[in-house]
Sequence to fold (340 residues):
Amino acid sequence: MRARRMMPTKLAPTGLLALLVAGLGGVAYFKETGYETADQIMILGAVVLAVIGGALSLVKQEIGASIAAGAVTVFVATAAVLVGSRIDSSNALDSLAAKLYLGAGVAGLILVIIVIADLFGRVNTPVGATIAVLALVSPVCFAAIVHIDDSHGAPLVAAVVGQLLVAAVIAIGALKGVFGGAASLVAAGLLLPHWVTRIQDFEDRKPAALAAATSLAVIVALAIVLLVMSRMQDVRLRAAEAAEDDPALITADWQPAAGAVSPAPVAVVVPGYIAPPTVAQPRVGVVVEPVSAPMMPAAVPTNGQWATDPYGRYQVRYWNGKKWTHHVATNGITGSDPIE
Fold:
């Protein structure tokens, strides 16, 4: 019943790529000086979050991949600027820091493609669509502010492309479910300090900078709402699933017939089911190998009931009207036996 909301299944390569990007970006940061405060926050924040996301991915925590994907967008945008500068200036990549940033951007782009392509899950359409629309505000405002001209065409176009790449991660992530929303939150949050600073830098174009900053702040707020709503929905789904699987009590007077080859169920047997040939002995411990549920006939009763265990492990197993559950019993003694 409960739907998965993600997941990038390639957690190990995602984690390694995230740590690689963090390493390249961190070294590049310390190889140069003169960063503005907003840029320091953005780059160091991206490095720290890429490390956190990479570490979480390596220990199989699903949200780590999305955190890393959002963090590395900073370096993807930086790489786009460097490529554009290279077109206009042959020495744009002469410094070691520039080469490291370019490497971080390329690795980051690969990471983003892996994660975004692998995301899936239930989407909150109104919130996700709103975030996706707001994501376009930042690159549009940036294009309006820089006034692309013939003298510095390629670098400025590349800078706009970088902003568009970040916007794409924010928009696609929000439309890919809760874990994608985490990528949107990280990417927008890292870009927000840059625009807050720009509000004071541009006197004649302050409205554009203000609009970009406001849109990113709203995205951050909506992404947090998306995460909270998803968490609440997961709790409700788990509660509903637990209630649905709750079996009726075995009556105290029920006992299997002595020496019976095929014990009778407590309630009506599911139509079309053939009982196992021998009485199953109680199992101890969890299931090691995954077991597929038996094929059920088309006319399956929708009411919950105890019936002969189709897996042959116990005398009876509880059918909740939709599937076999982990509730089992033998000789009136109930237990739990996960089947998947």
Q: What stands out?
A: The chain has two domains: 11-240, 248-340.
